[in-house]
Amino acid sequence: MNILLCCSAGMSTSLLVSKMKRCAAEQKLDYHIWAVPIDAVSREINNADVLLLGPQVRYMFNEFKNLGEEKGVPVIVIDTVQYGKMNGREVLLTAEQLYQDK
């Protein structure tokens, strides 16, 4: 699965991406997980199975949801509490559920 995360500059999610990658590796899951800034989403979404938005860019949800619908990529905003805790395991589970519900 290819999991794309988006935040303001692509930097605040780097720790979360690292934690998600570690969790996926522990489970021997072959996932590609990466983060980009807002302006790179339109280029990167074609490589993604799901798009997770950081809470700080929730204002872009409708725009990215429409883009995701065009590309067949489901989009959600990461839970603020899980994002704040940098809970890679829970965010990974959220991505997996979003993919399964697709």
From TrEMBL:
Keyword list, A-Z: Kinase, Phosphoprotein, Phosphotransferase system, Sugar transport, Transferase, Transport
GO biological process, one term: phosphoenolpyruvate-dependent sugar phosphotransferase system
Pfam families: PTS_IIB
Modified residues (Phosphocysteine): C7
InterPro entries: PTS_EIIB-like_sf (IPR036095), PTS_EIIB_2/3 (IPR003501), PTS_EIIB_3 (IPR013012), PTS_sugar-specific_EIIB (IPR051819)
Gene Ontology molecular function terms on file: kinase activity; protein-N(PI)-phosphohistidine-sugar phosphotransferase activity
PROSITE patterns: PTS_EIIB_TYPE_3 (PS51100)
NCBIfam families: pts-lac
Name of the protein this chain belongs to: PTS sugar transporter subunit IIB
Species assigned in the record: Sutcliffiella horikoshii
Higher taxonomy: Bacteria, Bacillati, Bacillota, Bacilli, Bacillales
